[in-house]
Design a protein that fits this description.
Layout: H1 9-17, E1 22-25, H2 29-32, H3 40-52, E2 56-61, H4 68-72, H5 77-93, E3 98-101, E4 113-117, E5 123-128, H6 145-166, E6 169-172, H7 192-201, E7 207-212, H8 213-218, H9 223-232, E8 236-241, E9 244-247, E10 250-253, H10 263-272, E11 279-281, H11 305-321
Parallel strand pairs: 1-2, 2-3, 3-6, 6-7, 7-8, 8-11
Antiparallel strand pairs: 4-5, 5-10, 9-10
Length: 322
């Protein structure tokens, strides 16, 4: 389960009570209250706190510090890449083997609505392109697809060998939503073909994929066939399990058992092709007594605990049955 880097008694306790023993976290300074993760002691303190509460910290997820210099190709990007490399080395020393990262510039994963009614009045988020099609970010925050590709390759050239040396899998997450441009910002990881382009350029064992089922589904990909192919090639090191109704221009989140994806068949595929890495439920509905405020990215929407409890139970049942 993705758990807060700073101890949260309710979420951490409920996670243990439902049998979760492995944690993923986002530990940016504004969330952890510590220095950024290029500081070894910051990451050690976070890892030790999880251990003290009975969790193994097996991965980090998201931007652990401001990645705009890297993604936009700003003059100070080499300094930021240096911090990133030190973070990878720190992860290796502390035996944290997974880093889920993305290359969405300016706008990360994004939703336009957070109060869409689901089953029984639960609330989910959704993306509707017409809500933002006339909105633009300021010029200095925009980047073209061509520039993004160049900036991504520059970044990976520097960090993938370091990740390999540290024993860390860098699992690239697709763009969510997978459309380009979004508010004038180019996006590139919007298809399976884009991931093939990254692999063709960097066929190195530290170059892995976060297989976010719903993101690839909204691209229109055949997710069962795609998972089988990439698992055969040993390129998937992390699974994000959620479901959505709709396409990349208009979609809403669902309960894990209430969408179009045949979850049982997907888990059969993961078993058949030998997946053995971390699996976590991704976004889940806000249920009775929970509220979702305005979308703020990161873990602002879809990360209340009750929907996650349901998701974990449902996914554990499928896991054991197959």
């Amino acid at each position: 389960m993705l758990l807060p880097a700073k101890y949260d008694e309710r979420k951490w306790s409920l996670a243990k009570q439902i049998g979760v023993n492995h944690a993923i976290t986002k530990a940016a300074s504004d969330l952890s209250g510590l220095s950024d993760l290029s500081n070894f002691e910051s990451l050690r303190k976070i890892s030790d706190q999880f251990k003290q509460k009975g969790f193994a910290l097996v991965g980090l997820e998201g931007d652990q510090f401001d990645m705009q210099p890297i993604k936009l190709g700003l003059p100070d990007r080499d300094q930021t890449i240096g911090k990133y490399i030190q973070m990878l080395r720190n992860m290796g020393q502390l035996e944290i083997p997974l880093l889920c990262y993305n290359f969405m510039a300016t706008i990360g994963w994004f939703r336009t609505r957070v109060d869409i009614p689901e089953r029984g009045g639960a609330q989910v988020s959704g993306f509707y392109h017409e809500d933002v099609q006339n909105q633009m970010v300021s010029d200095e925050l925009r980047v073209t697809e061509e520039q993004l590709w160049s900036n991504l390759f520059y970044f990976l050239e520097a960090v993938l060998p370091e990740a390999k040396a540290a024993g860390v899998s860098m699992a690239l997450h697709p763009d969510d939503p997978p459309i380009s441009p979004l508010k004038g910002v180019g996006r590139i990881l919007t298809s399976a073909a884009a991931f093939e382009k990254v692999w063709d350029r960097f066929p190195i064992e530290s170059n892995k994929i976060t297989f976010c089922q719903a993101s690839f589904l909204t691209m229109g990909e055949n997710i069962q066939q795609l998972a089988a192919l990439w698992l055969e090639q040993k390129r998937i090191s992390f699974l994000h399990i959620r479901d959505v109704e709709g396409d990349k221009y208009n979609f809403r989140e669902t309960f894990h058992d209430n969408g179009p994806t045949d979850m049982v068949e997907m888990f059969r595929t993961y078993k058949k092709y030998g997946f053995d890495g971390p699996i976590r439920p991704d976004h889940a509905p806000a249920m009775y007594g929970e509220t979702q405020s305005t979308f703020g990215g990161s873990t602002s929407v879809g990360y209340e605990i009750t929907g996650k409890i349901f998701a974990i139970g449902y996914l554990k049942g499928i896991y054991e049955s197959v």
